[in-house]
Amino acid sequence: MNLQKHSLAAILSVILATLISRQLTIPNNETSLNYLKNIGFKTFSTTSPILSLFIPNKIYKNHHRHNHQCHRTKKKTGISICNNFTPKFPTIDTTTTSILCVDGNGCCNFTTVQSAVDAVEVLSPKRTIIWINTGVYFEKVTVPKTKANVTFQGQGFESTAIVYNDNANISHGTFYSGSVQVFAPNFIAKNLSFMNVAPIPGPGIVGAQAVAIRIAGDEAAFWGCGFFGAQDTLHDDRGRHYFKDCYIQGSIDFVFGNGRSIYENCKLISMANPVPVGSKNVNGAITAHGRASNDENSGFAFDNCFVGGTGRVWLGRAWRPFSRVIFAYTTMTSIIAPEGWNDLNDPTRDQTIFYGEYKCTGEGANTTLRTSYAQNLNDTQASSFINMSFIDADQWLQPFA
User: Fold this and answer.
1) 350 tagged catalytic
2) Which residues of the chain have pLDDT under 50?
3) Of 326, 262, 62, which is closest to residue 70 (Cα–Cα)?
4) Could you say which of 11, 89, 166, 354 is the most buried, measured as most Cβ atoms within 10 Å of its Cβ?
5) What does the domain layout of the chain look like in residue ranges?
6) Which pLDDT does position 194 carry in this prediction?
7) pLDDT tens digits, residue range 231-242?
8) How do residues 301-352 score in pLDDT, each as one tens digit?
């Protein structure tokens, strides 16, 4: 899905316009295109196969066309674009559910996602759907513990995005750098993207971790969502979570945390720098699970997923000594290093970490040279992770509809 240079500039101009509207300064010696590349869009090369998914073309087309018509209509006829605004709200039972509408052009009661979250009733037993119209929302969003049962409903992860650019240095810690931070239980997100566009860190850079979303509430589900960043993209912090048909991009530890989560039919795309043919250098890792003791019932389970992109990466690094990750029925390209996993240079962890693979395919799934502590799981072992009982789904997970 390659894009031409003029398309690249056009897409970036959407984020640029948003940055300018938020009064962020651009260094005088940089062009807008170079500035946006430098703040984090290293993936924006005209040959990148994942370019059109990082800031997809639909965001630009819909956003630009919408605003262009808005200005033209207002100038020539004086008629507001909102006269033609017809949101496709889902059908709801108003006794159990309410809807709040967000539109950056002012056609709803809210122009920002955070203002809609703030309007959610505290400790409400009802579900609140925050319907977010097509566009890029440059803001930092927090869903506090008191705002349970909230749904973020986008219009497609290629057309609706919440974007910010904090990193660990700016926010005083990786855990606080998320563009979106969710602490409330029973959170749902559908059909939108979460992005962190902070500068992509070079090797060994301190404090450059930049989270797209931190999910620290229990019983959360993500359907058809995108997660875009570099180091530490998706902070699957704690609680039981379900991800279905999602697109997750990063370079180092881009799914990390101590959650108990199932990832089903998701795409995990590395944007680590390409390595020369034959090189044994490893420059990325997909997961960094943070299970600290054998008493913790947590782990990441990837079922029927796809792993691809660029670089040479590990499936996981042992962030903490009881790290637990499994991949089942997953297609792995040649970006996976033959050893597969990394104990963070601490051999004492080899006896306590649990890294397993089950019936995976592709060039990267060859386990001949895997580390000694990696396991080829049997049917019983694998089923305990990829069965929905791993996250107690029957107690809380609702169908997509």
Assistant:
1) no
2) 1-75
3) 62
4) 11
5) 137-391
6) 98
7) 999 999 999 999
8) 999 999 999 999 999 999 999 999 999 999 999 999 999 999 999 999 999 9
Q: How far apart are CA 24 and CA 1, in angstroms?
A: 31
pLDDT for 51:
33
Catalytic choice (236, 237, 253, 343): 253
CATH superfamily ID and name for 137-391: Single-stranded right-handed beta-helix, Pectin lyase-like (2.160.20.10)
d(CA 388, CA 262): 8
Q: What pTM value is reported for the model?
A: 0.84
- Joined together, the tokens standing for residue 377 give 């799981």
